[in-house]
Structure formats: C-alpha cells, structure tokens
Design a protein that fits this description.
With about 450 residues, the protein is an alpha/beta fold. It contains 16 helices and 17 strands. Helices cover about 40% and strands about 15% of the residues. The protein starts with a strand and ends with a helix.
Length: about 450
Amino acid sequence: MRRWSKHVFLGLIILFISLLTACSGDSGEETASDDGDSNANGDAVELTFWKSEDVGRADYQAFMDIVEKFDEENPDIDLQVDTTPNADYRTRLNTQAAGGQLPDMFQVWPGAELEPLVEGGAVQPIDDIVSYWTEETGLLDEEDFADFSVDGNPYAVPANTNPTHMIFYDKDMLADAGYEEFPSTYEEFLQLIDDLNANDITPMALGNSDAWVLQSVYISTIADRFTGNDFLEGVANGERAFTDSDFVQSLEVIDELVKKEAFNEDLNTIDSSQMIDYFLQGRAAMVMDGNWGISAILENMPEDKNVGVSMIPLNDKKTISTVAGTGVAINSELEGEKLEAAHTFLQYVYNQDLWEELIKVGRPIIANVEVPDDAELHPLQEEMLDLIAESDPAPVYDATLIPAVNDQLENELQSITVGGSTPKEAAENIQRVQESEQQ
C-alpha cells in the first residue's frame, strides 16, 4: 500500500471543515444534525458549529458523513451545524468575531487569517489535546500544527494541505496547436500562448472578480520562483521589500501575460467557478487554479474532454504555493462540559475514517494515513498527485501577509491587468502599505 505523508499531498480541493447553528439573529442555513430531535435528551450538551458551505462536492459529503456518524454515536452531544456560502463566510465570521457573537466551534483558515482571531481573544488553544494526534494515534506530527499555531500555541487541527497552483489544460487543443506535451520552459509556454491566439483560441481562462485568484493561484507560486521561500519572512522583518527587483520581476510576469492576451477579456468580471466553466466549454485551452479545481472539472467535464495537469514552467524550479487547508477553532469562552464536548468532536472527526474517505475522493491530506485498498482515483487525480509529489512547497501570500498588505497586493494585481499600475508602481504601493502597517 502507498503511504501518503503530509509532504506527498493527495490532491484536490480545499476541505472546508465544520459548522454550527446560527447564533440568534444570524443569517445562514441552519441544520440540526440530529434530524430535528435535538432536545429529546434534556441532558445533552449543545454545541454550535459554523462551516463555509461547499454543498455537492465529494469532500464536503465525506466530512458530513463523519459528522452524522458522530451524532449517532454521541447522543449526549446535541450538535447543530450552520453553513454559509463560501463567498460570504469570511465576512460573516469577521463580523461576528468583532461583535463577540461567535459560535462554539467554527471553521478558520491558517496563518494571517487566524492571527487576528487569536489576538482578539476569540479562540482558545488546543495544546491539551494535541498529544491525541501526535502521540496516542501518531496520525499527525507536531510540525503539522505549525500553520494553525500562534506564538507556539496550536488553535486548530489541520486536516489537509492545499497546493494552490495547477494548470489544467485540454490535451487535444494543445495538440491541434502543435504541442503533444505541455511546454517545459517559460519561452515555450509564451510561444504556446501566441500559437493559441493565432488559432483564435483563448489561451487561459481567468476569473479574478474576487481578486484572490491572481494572488493565491498565480503570484504566490510565480513570485517564489524569483524570490525563494524566505522572501515574505524577510519582508516581515525588514530585510526584504516588495520593491526588490526579484519581486518586481514576478509582477512583470503577470503584466507580460496580460499584454500577450493570455486571458479572456472579462477576467475581472467573472469568478473562479465561471473560469472553470469557460475551460470545460472549450472557450479556453487552459485554466490555472488550485488543486480544488479538479473537483469541478471531474464532475462537469464532457466525456470526450482530454484533460492534463501541469505547473507553470518558470526558472527551472518546481515549487508550488501550498498552505494548510481549513481547521476548526474553539470559542475562547467555552469551558466545562461544553469544552469537553468540543474536544470529543475534534478527536472523533479528525481521525482515520475521515482521512481515508478524503483520500478516496482525491483530497490532499496532511495525516500519516495509507491509501485504502478500495480507493479508486481518476487518472487526472493520479497525474495531479504525482505532480504535487515532485514539487516543493512555497508560501501562499494570503496565509502569510498582514491582511491590509494582502488586500493591496490583490488590488495592484487587478490594476496591472487593466493598465492602471506598472509592476514597479504596484510594488511601491504594496511596500508603502507594508511599512505603514509595521509602524
């Protein structure tokens, strides 16, 4: 049996973890996990749980199946789950956090997105149960908690890893343009763009209306190919700057792709789901997305669509921006029986069964779990996993940068696409915000 560790990601889709019942007056789709008989046992401990909604995806269903099993086997815990659409979840979470109205447990993202919740006292550390995974079961190693740790204290359990950069391409469309294999050099990649345009084919579908795609999927990997893994750390401690020539070069790649007409004209008015639709409809030969994109591709592509997967061939490096996926944090106010119930939930859900089910649907996991004998992965999933296995991880910008700096970065990337900023001007604007935030 193959064994996939946290370094050999099994890939697809950002696993969004768990959910809650809406607080009084909250919007959101409320669902009782016990089919409406939530208070049949008056002694049951009530737990509310929020999750970013991704209904319909295989990894979402795998997670919810484990949640249902938890409910059946723990009648003394009344778990309520409340989902919010992906596009709205972060706003809801941050708004409720500011008002001190968070549920008992809620989905969080690592790094820079988790830190404000910790600094604001909204979440509590889980130091006292980490040994369950690192010592009792051996499913995780201590370093696996790093992305969800602040000042050395872990605040959520990591479930998966998220490589955020893949290029999915139509093999037949590339073959018609004279390419039997995906380009192996950046010069060949640029020539492919020219050749596709010459055949009146949009080279790359891009949906950046929400601004994060160019940041997470594109620049996080492209910049690392120029700057190396330690760049963002250097920026944080003042040893590096966004105005450094190597980072400016990465912005010049975006500028170059725009000027070469690599993208659809409506790149800033369609979203990431629509860009996948463009690709599947044959309106573009390629689409750049995170590993999660493979789910929509496999679920919706025509039977005769022949899809391959690669990474941008740039600077003879094979780094792919990668971050821990999502985790579930515990409200800082929980104590006593409710805290114990929350710990029970985390230990039950983040276990062998969940990770094996995620493997079966091609989800990149972080745990030390073997591939089940009955796992049947699609050839495209296997191809993607091989690609991830031969790559090295690079930081994802929105999981590392101060939120205000990341917002400026995303704004500048959009500005470059419409000719509003040159790469040099964009770098100066980003650095200006970085310095103001550090004062």
